[in-house]
Amino acid sequence: MAKDKKLVEAITSMDVDFAQWYTDVVKKAELMDYSSVRGCMIFKPAGYALWENIQRELDRRFKETGVENVYMPMFIPESLLEVEKDHVEGFAPEVTWVTHGGMNELQERLCVRPTSETLFCDFYKNDIESYRDLPKLYNQWCSVVRWEKETRPFLRSREFLWQEGHTAHATTEEAEERTIQMLNLYADFVEEFLAIPVIRGQKTEKEKFAGAKDTYTIEALMHDGKALQSGTSHNFGDGFAKAFGIQYTDKDNQLKYVHQTSWGMTTRLIGALIMVHGDDSGLVLPPAVAPTQVMVIPVQQRKEGVMEACAALKDRLTTVCRAKLDDSDKSPGWKYSEQEMRGIPLRIELGPRDIAENHCVAVRRDTREKIVIALDEVETVLPQLLDQIQKDMFERAKAHRDSHIYDAHDYQEFCEIVNTKPGYIRGMWCGDRACEDKIKEETGATSRCMPFDDQEQISATCVCCGKPAKKLVYWGRAY
Q1: Cα–Cα distance for residue pair 475/479, rounded to 1 Å
Q2: What SS3 state is found at 211?
Q3: Strand pairing of 323-325 and 294-298?
Q4: Residue 63: CB atoms within 10 Å
Q5: What span, in angstroms and rounded, lies between the C-alpha atoms of 199 and 187?
Q6: Distance from C-alpha of 182 to C-alpha of 174, rounded to nearest angstrom
Q7: Packed helices 45-64 and 172-193: angle between N→C axes, nearest 10 degrees
Q8: Which of 32, 40, 216, 337 is the most exposed place for a label (fewest CB within 10 A)?
């Protein structure tokens, strides 16, 4: 039993030190490892399998809206990067430069892509000629490099995996429609597939993407009450088109500039999964994204017929879910702890007594509830149970989020809440960036978004300066 306990006791309690708990989980669940390249991480099979499932589902949803995949170079010439001034200034502190090819100094520095707007624009200016060429609905799956000062596994690293969509349209209305469409696609994906509730809204001018006309976001709340930006969609208008000369001949034979969008999600979603659903025993994975949904664990596996029955049950389950058999020589107690650490949604215990009584015992990872299931009914009951776990996990996360939203009507109340109650703070804002800067500097909270679905005027005055308010804003400390 001491050995069985050791696996779980190696995790720091989240209530003692949430940051250390997070690090313990990603290491003990073998999601990643640190590399010899400072600030960069190694995806181990369990971590990369999560990204593969995220990628597969997102890619399917993208293609249903007409999006096609492409791939752009990872290097951007300095002269190309500087065409769009605001965009360059936004990324300048994080850019990594290549100055030599072999032993020879390059005539022009090459930027290792922090994002690919300029490459897509350079491509579009030659690829788009007529209204018949529009819209262009492209996406690429790749890695990007941003030289972050402080890093944390999945949440912030110097190289990370993501997708970036880049579209071009004939009109501003079409671009805006696509921008909102992709934001809603992201929100539905995160809620339905990852069981994480989000708030949809618009970023303030200060927080929007460099070079964008408007930026829309989905914001999720982690277990410790900090926010995590989980996906963004940007309407570029015709700003990039004018900078790069991306024009098309319209039906009236007039030259016009295209209107563009960009949208992206990253491997920080894995960090969100950990911090929204995890507990002191490790990961708790929603069935939809879990690489292994069901683990069959033999009880008294040396007894005659047990391993054969477990293998047969696993083979049956693979027709309705992602199932595996733990046929290692570890003790059942160790296997239970390991399964909990890895967040596998269901374990199935099957031993001699269960076989004799023609049933198995299913144990939910999220609630640890034990459910006896007749062996003749497993193909029907288990998919239903997995669906119920998915729904229950979302509702629990939503209840937690909703119970950590507070209203502030003046600055004193705002400061008191931000220092004593982790979570979102709803507060009215006058629209002045000086108030936004003051709140961030003095409290560490930032504007997360101006929500679409919550337009309640909780006060007539700005939560910071007391002047007439214009917008309701969700504020909070964030990762």
Answers
A1: 13
A2: coil
A3: parallel
A4: 13
A5: 8
A6: 12
A7: 140
A8: 40
Report pLDDT digits (tens) over 373-396: 999 999 999 999 999 999 999 999
Cα torsion for 469, 473, 477, 479, to the nearest 10°?
A: -140
Q: Is there a cis peptide before residue 451, judged by omega within 30 degrees of 0?
A: no
Query: CA 122 to CA 146: how far, in whole Å?
Result: 21
Q: What tens digit of pLDDT does each residue of 89-140 get?
A: 777 788 999 999 999 999 999 999 999 999 999 999 999 999 999 999 999 9
CA triplet 324, 7, 321: central angle to 5 degrees? Answer: 20
Instruction: Classify residue 455 as exposed, middle or buried by CB count within 10 Å of its CB (0-12, 13-18, 19+).
Output: exposed
Beta strands in 54-158 (DSSP E): 68-69, 75-77, 96-101, 104-112, 136-145
**Residue 61: how many other CB atoms lie within 10 Å:** 17
Amino acid at 403: S
pTM value surpassing 0.85: yes
In the block, which residue shows the tokens 């696993």? Answer: 314
Helix or strand holding residue 397 (H, E): helix 378-402
Identify the CA nearest to 292 among candidates 350, 342, 361, 366. Answer: 342
Q: CA torsion, points 447, 450, 454, 459, in degrees to nearest 10?
A: 70
Contact 106, 99 (CB under 8 A): yes
